[in-house]
Write the structure tokens for this entry.
Amino acid sequence: MLSCKNIAEHAGDIHDRQLPLSRRLAVRLHLMLCNACRRFLKQYALAATTGAKAMERRQTEGDAEQVLRRID
Ligand SMILES: [Zn+2]
């Protein structure tokens, strides 16, 4: 059985769904039994989604123009 440390170490792969079937099943089993890891992965997903949205916003042309206007 996976440990909480294993879950934390592979949080990125779990979030990106990059695990083989046997590992995914082991993760699911662990999450059924461990409330702390369920909360941890929920927070990880929220942070990853928020970070990705922030990166998308930064890369828009409108934002770049706003920054340039403030510099002038
Ligand atoms: Zn755990």
User: Anything to note?
Assistant: The chain has one domain: 4-71. Residues 49 and 55 are 10 Å apart (CA to CA).
